[in-house]
Amino acid sequence: MAQAFVAERVVTPKGTRRAAVLVEHGLISRVCPVDEVPADAEVMDFGHRVLMPGLVDSHVHINEPGRTEWEGFLTATRAAAAGGYTLLVDMPLNCLPETTTVEALELKRSEAEGKCLVDWAAWGGAVTDNQADLLPLARAGVPGYKCFLIYPGCDGFTMIDRDQLERALPAVAESGLPLLVHAELAAPIDAAVAKLGEADWRKYATYMASRPDEAELEAIEMMIELCRRYRFRLHIVHLSTARALPMLRAAKAEGLAVTVETCPHYLYFAAEQIGDGNTLAKCAPPIRSEENREALWAGLRDATIDLVVTDHSPCPPEMKRLEVGRFDLAWGGIASLSVALPVMWTEAARRGFAVEDLVRWMSAGPAKLAGMQDGVGVIAKGRDANFVVFDPDTEFEVQTDKLHFRHAVSPYVGAKLRGIVEATYLRGEPVWRAGEFDSRRRGRELRLC
Ligand SMILES: [Zn+2]
Known about the structure:
Bound molecules: zinc ion
Largest sheet: 9 strands, mixed
Helix content: 25-40%
Order of helices and strands: EEEEEEHEHEEHEHEHHHEHEHHEHHEEEE
């Protein structure tokens, strides 16, 4: 028997309208007027709620296997379900072993088995010396690669320099897969830190000064040049400095295959509001000024920035070193999976954006980056029946019981936000509804081949 998901505001590529989404065997079979729903369908009417495609987060640090005490498949996918996400793509660096070989990928697959409430996939890593592993990783089903141009914060995943990159890029180009780049170069950071001398590391201003815009600007400039030479798909992760927007816009206009993401924390917080000692707000590159934040919003408006992903990167609470409050000692990373949609909606709505924009940035955009746009990310015939039932009007205050990831630590605690994820559906069945999780753990890995 078909299911019919009915709502006043169904967000489809053809617009938002009252409609019914018919679902059979977990797939969308048709989007139609409500009066065309078959008489024997099981109808779920969500009234004035928004029915939008399940969100896709292409930037999540799940940390399993190896650092499951930081996060893990069960806790990350549970937080995802409560946040409206139906697909997470895992970053290759914080797990042990790092996802830089097919063997490590296979181990991750066996560890994920039976733990996931929503779907997942895994980026492969491009590191100092694994150029020969890149094409085998592609054949094993990764949707793309991630690399660091600077020390990534943990030792096993090695940063890649320009020479090593140039050895990797022919394989990246041949794979047709995107290379996701943490775009900061060490030289401007080392120079800035040397100038800081005896600065007070409890001050956020010290941390921000230690990671100047130039580190991002020089890295992005180098990557655009390499993209022009090697013709691969370049994706800049977590753009923080809006000063890079003109060169990114120019690279796109030139026809280079460049895409860009930013994160909710760069769009919500600003340096001026971060109290000294508040290491919960530490991430790299850093949250910058209010003026910079508004310029990032402008980058979303003109589509220089293609998508918004969480960079959900938790750690055990003690690693935030709140008792000393020193930004140089604290782990950098912000966890936000279960609140990212209301964070984005709160800020987007007040700037005149619509739910269609959220879908473009948080569903369709990341799905396309991962090459999975034919399966997920939009409400259209043939796609997986993944949905968020979203109440865009109700306000709430973030409390730790809303977080659902392993450690309820986040700079968003106490934030007053707008928009409630009432339910999340994976292939037609609820994984989160009325405050309850589905216990069946039906999430599976999505492979690109
Ligand atoms: Zn990250």
